[in-house]
Amino acid sequence: MLDDVAAGRIQLPDFQRQWKWDDDRIRALLATVTLDYPLGVAMTLETGGDAQFKARPLHGTGVQPHVVPEQLLLDGQQRLTSLFQALRSDRPVETTGARNKPLKRWYYIDIAKAVDEAADRDEAIVSVPEDRVLRGAYGHAATRDLSTREKECANGLFPLNLIFEPDLTGKWQRAYVAGGDDRWDLWSAFQARVIDTVKGFKVPLIRLPKETRKEAVCSVFERVNTGGVVLNVFELLTATYAGDTQYSAGHGGHDFSLIKNWQAIKGELCSDHQVFGTLDKDSGQETGLTSLDFLQAIALVRTYRRKQEFLAENPGATNAPAVSCKRRDLLHLPLTDYTTIAPKAAEALSWVGRFLATQHVFRERDLPYGSQVVPLAAIVVLLRETLQEPDVQERLARWYWCGVLGELYGGVTDTRFVRDVEQVVGWIRDGGAEPDTVTEATFQEQRLHRLASRNSAAYKGVHALLLKEGAVDWFFHGEPINEQFLIGQYVDIRQVFPKAWLEQNGVDGSRMSSIVNKTPLSYRALQAMGASAPSAYLAAFERHTGSPGDWFDDIVGTHLIDAKTLRADDFDAFYRDRTARLLELVEREMGKAAVRERTSDAVAG
Prior knowledge:
Blueprint: H1 2-7, E1 10-13, H2 23-34, E2 42-46, E3 55-56, E4 71-75, H3 77-88, E5 93-96, E6 102-110, H4 111-115, H5 121-124, E7 125-129, E8 133-135, E9 142-145, H6 149-155, E10 157-159, H7 166-177, H8 183-199, E11 205-208, H9 214-224, H10 233-242, H11 245-250, H12 258-272, H13 291-313, H14 327-331, H15 335-358, H16 373-382, H17 392-405, H18 414-429, H19 436-440, H20 445-450, H21 457-468, H22 483-488, E12 492-495, H23 499-504, H24 509-513, E13 518-521, H25 523-529, H26 534-545, H27 549-557, H28 563-567, H29 571-590
Helix pairs in contact: 6-7, 12-15, 13-15, 13-16, 15-16, 16-18
């Protein structure tokens, strides 16, 4: 196919968008091809029929305008253009980097990493500037110089654009193995696992005959060309599962549709629990819980059970397979294991939705960490038979709030997923030690003063805990705020002392916007408060509700606020008192003491 692209036998219909893949996508594509993973179907149209389109060569080929193509590429432009430029061209690839900055790059593969089965192939693909010199931060000193063949060989980085040039590859090989006898074995493995794999890579091709009508061609193109993005893990598994002949043979010739299976699961979860986001089945657009989250939970369950089975058969062994949910674990997830675990993972997620509701996390926008749902779902699958035992849900809640308030799920989460699954299951089911997420979590009093927006998981966590405490709205009063009221009355985190009043009274901005000065209230309550002093709006609420002051003070108290400080318009007293109350709330949920400020350092008036 690349030869056809180079010769101009395959070109693009002129209505195709311009090639636009960035550097990261090209690296991911090269990793896919070198691993012989499914690439997705390409589609062409034979020329010479009634559907006549002006053609143009694929970007970077150098094909002259007078060359008449034999086929027009309807689907696969991004992939074939990227592969041609990276593997078949003697010029650097024209691509883009961060913020669409134009780049010219060469692509190499690290031989040692490529033959290491434990290494991620993505890390083996190296993108190098046009001058073939990799530099440190801000373009400073060179970290790798690949400007000559000798330097490429010394670094063990093979230029991928030589892969279809046997003479040049042979010369490169001879220079490489001359660097040491140990390189012969590396090269042999590299030849078999990478070079031969790429040369033998098969691209599935749908070839429409030239008799295809023009309107049909346009319709097909619109349906298949949905944005030109690299196949993600879910799409790769979709292609793999659809080609599972054993499944098809056992189901009357029908293929397994991972997309339909996931959409059914996600649709039911979203209809029951808004915390999991939304799904538009027509467009495939979704928010909140993703297919990747679901696959990771399944992989955690599968690899946990695999490890436990190994240890049961090999007591005391130290080489048990690891619990993991990395990309390679997902790509190697057999369909039989998926169909076995997926229903249980779906049930577990439904349980998680109910659990989050007991913690008063109802909406997607209020979920502190979407990522924490992944290990929780896996834990629930593994603990299924013990979930109803005394104290199990209390322990899960403690682990959950330690993760949220300790803000432990904000960075790279794969390793924490694994530790939490193994350690929480061992803690609850087997009486093991407390998990690291519980022991490592800390909450400092100073953090309360800095929590000012929904960008922080702990900010959302405090909001949920105030609802869990039984906060009652000040305008509608009645029952504590529940899920229906939260959504129906536009409850959000509102300022207790209004911004205008604080500015008029010279209060600093950090305390003004802190979670300490905020509480969940309806939009109607916010309107009634306006810019008034707390003493004034409390009196207005009393008149509106027709309730005596002492009774309304109890309503204010459900928000962990001393109403007397509001009636006195004493912001300093309010802030000190509420800080102490919120810290007690955090300590109770985490099951440990917070790190409090010394008296001399405490926030003063």
